[in-house]
């Protein structure tokens, strides 16, 4: 099976600028077109392990990152995201082109893949069982996820979109670059020294943003689903002692529903799927300040039950 | 861009044949359908023809995604209709549902997969103020507060300014006629209301009679200036004709009623383009009966050139270098049909130079 990394840089650029690159992103195929160098850099650096899908096959999402043809091509250069030729978002500064691709693909999945209950949460797996980490932005979810995946031996299923398949309640992987913000960037550079990270992009809506390459093993196992076992609500608090407080099922349900993209869209089916998930999982409120301690706790979790 | 028949039209004309398409073709077909707001409808049509299970799995998955959205939409519309009915209950007048709301309430085939944003109702003109007051009591608020826009709607058009519910944010359009006061044709609303039929044994809800429903759909599509949902509306027409057309009395009544309501020309276009683009079978006697309502040959050639482009999906793969011009000319035509020239000139001048620019406000 051909991967992105097996293409020469020249061929990668040519496909991106021309007919489009068809990336296997978990269950979905994304056709990406862009002549912008920083996008090609990002793909080359972070998507090397991802499978290439046939150029004449079916793609679920068609994204294009282009530079506007007006004055903004030169004055305060911008990048526009097109969804199958339609512009749905405001343009961003040109240096945010690669993050824009990541955000755009997240949007595609979360707004369209309606046969999955989609939670705004990271999800990782060890021993066949998955831990879902929902959290509002800024709670340290991505830092914890990057640490658990980079040094804790957990498989990355997703750092942003947890896909719960309605048909059978399995977590379906969508391993993609882990997005880190502001202080987390230095923390992970330090904690996981061999992580491959994109150049930080400043002044975005979320602050300074960088992406960490997903482990090759996680990408290779993208077809392996997992049973949900834990729902852990993480919160980083400087200097705090590690605390893991069990949550009642009802509370876990409500907190999860509040973090779903498409809970009300899915109606009764969404309610049932979420109920089943909560029935078979343990909910926890988790406070930490030291990553080593957090990783040790998760090891205990993985060994339990 | 291409002048050959787009895949989507081919699939709509012959749904069963689409199983022979390869993955590349399905990729393009679904993209055209998404651009035309017809993804969920396509899924239902394929299901009706028993071929949904035989198309490539990734395509079937995408159609399933669209159907989840359509189901939720239908549920929301049904709830909204119930609340509108409740709001107007005290007035004792039957609210006549129009277009999508009617298709949904009556579970017509044209409702399946159809996504739309407003509920439309038709009420007697003399009771407009009462209806507006009742809706406001129930939580709907007026929009378009600019004095000019208010006058545009109330004096010249056939509807109140759209009302939005303060909590649910749903929209309702209250019509007293199906064409603007200022338009040349004046279909008699009293005739429409007299012929209205009940919706699903509910005396408080009515919808237009089958023939009137088709005529309304035809005039709505062929008098409008915007064709973003052009193909979707044409498919509505096709499905309505297929559904009601099993009754011979429907066809016998169609052309005479069109003349009664001064809607013969839009009906001519409706029958012509559903047949031409979607392969709709129209009985020969009906074709003969409507033929005198055709425009002069030179105009018909022009209309063909315009509509054959404007009714395609708005996708890069459909149409040719004249498509943008076709859309532009039809936009002008749409405004022309709404208002006499002097009034139109005044209106466009006002919108261009005098109306305050409000972000996100719908242009009147």
Concise account of the structure shown:
With 305 residues, chain A is of the alpha+beta class. Chain A has helices at 9-17, 37-46, 97-112, 141-150, 183-191, 216-220, 249-258, 263-279, 291-303, and strands at 21-25, 28-34, 61-66, 78-83, 86-87, 92-93, 116-126, 129-134, 155-158, 161-165, 171-172, 178-181, 201-204, 207-212, 227-236, 243-247, 282-288.
Task: Describe what this molecule looks like in 3D.
The complex is a heterodimer of chains A (about 300) and B (about 375). Chain A has nine helices and 17 strands. Chain A is α+β, with helices and mostly antiparallel strands and about 300 residues long. In chain A, strands 7, 8, 9, 10, 11, 15, 16 and 17 form an eight-stranded mixed beta sheet that branches. In chain A, strands 1, 2, 3, 4, 5 and 6 form a six-stranded mixed beta sheet that branches. In chain A, strands 12-14-13 form a three-stranded antiparallel beta sheet. The longest helix of chain A has 17 residues, at about 265-280. The mean pLDDT of chain A is about 95. Chain B has about 375 residues and is of the alpha/beta class. In chain B, helix 9 (about 210-225) crosses helix 11. The longest helix of chain B is centred in the N-terminal third of the chain and has 32 residues, at about 55-90.
Annotation, overall tally of beta strands of chain B: 7
Strand arrangement within the widest β-sheet of chain B reads 3-4-5-2-1-7-6
**What percentage of amino acids of chain A are in beta strands?**
25-35%
User: What kind of assembly state do the chains in view correspond to?
Assistant: heterodimer
C-alpha end-to-end distance of chain A: 37 Å
Q: Which structural class should the secondary elements of chain A be placed in?
A: alpha+beta
Beta strand % of chain B = 5-15%
The largest contact between protein chains, plus residue counts on each side, is: A-B, 18 and 23 residues
Low-confidence runs of chain B: 359-364
If helices are DSSP runs of H or I spanning 4 or more residues, what is the number of helices of chain B? Answer: 16
Biggest sheet overview of chain B:
7 strands, mixed
Give the helices and strands of chain B as they follow along the chain: HHHHEHEHEHEEHEEHHHHHHHH
Per DSSP, the total helix count of chain A is 9
Name the structural class of chain B: alpha/beta
Rounded to the nearest angstrom, the radius of gyration of chain A is 19 Å
Q: Provide mean pLDDT of chain A, rounded.
A: 94
Please mark out the parts of chain A with pLDDT under 50 across 5 or more consecutive residues, or reply none.
none
Number of strands of chain A: 17
Form type of chain A: globular
Query: What is the global morphology of chain B?
Result: globular
| Integer-rounded radius of gyration of chain B | 21 Å
